[in-house]
Specification:
The protein is α+β, with helices and mostly antiparallel strands. Among the domains are: 2-45, 3-Layer(aba) Sandwich (Ribosomal Protein L9, domain 1), CATH 3.40.5.10; 68-152, Ribosomal protein L9, C-terminal domain (Ribosomal Protein L9, domain 2, Roll). 43% of the residues lie in helices and 22% in strands. The chain is built from five helices and nine strands. A hairpin with an 8-residue loop joins strand 8 (124-130) and strand 9 (139-146).
Length: 187
């Protein structure tokens, strides 16, 4: 079945594209959801109009979600979990748990279907791609650690935290040294 996409469809194409899809996919999903129409001669005449509308709406949406993408891209989530000696979890970290954690940290509400991820069933660091739009797919880091243990942060995060801690500790002492030098009379 040939269809003309009216909206962007993940892993299929952008609005205005003519695609050949399975009959069931087109009949049961694309057409009822109004994501596509049959590629008839009359519909094909509207291709340029559909593409131009989609590009303007896509540009507006990308601009609106650009700040959210930055926040999500810098996000580091940690989850404590019970695990066996081999590092396999007794349960799993689900997409819904990750979505809830993102909402708590950023205030932005995602849909669990926007995450490209199977449930996490092992300890360690996992990268999660979030599909905000076809163009904006930020990547966040999820760290799963044993309950009662301190999570191992990535080296870049550890270095940044140590640098800020050292700067906070050293700056008052340096300021006191400079103030003492200014107060002591020169010989």
């Amino acid at each position: 079945m040939k269809v003309l996409l009216l909206k962007d469809v993940y892993k299929l194409g952008r609005a205005g594209d003519v695609k050949k899809v399975a009959d069931g996919y087109g009949r049961n999903f694309l057409l009822p959801q109004r994501l596509a129409v049959l590629a008839t001669a009359g519909a094909l005449k509207q291709v340029e109009h559909i593409r131009s509308q989609a590009e303007t709406s896509r540009a507006v949406l990308n601009k609106e979600l650009g700040g959210v993408a930055e926040k999500i891209g810098k996000l580091l989530l940690t989850f404590p979990a019970k695990a066996g000696e081999t590092g396999k979890l007794y349960g799993s970290i689900t997409t819904q748990m990750i979505v809830d954690a993102v909402k708590v940290k950023t205030g932005f509400e995602l849909d669990r279907r926007q995450l490209d991820l199977q449930p996490i069933r092992t300890l360690g660091e996992h990268s999660v791609h979030v599909r905000l739009t076809l163009d904006l797919i930020p990547e966040m880091i999820v760290i799963v650690h044993r309950e009662g243990e301190v999570p191992e942060l990535p080296e870049s995060e550890e270095a940044a935290e140590e640098a800020t801690e050292e700067a906070a500790e050293e700056s008052p002492a340096e300021e006191l040294d400079q103030a003492e030098e200014e107060l002591t009379p020169a010989e």
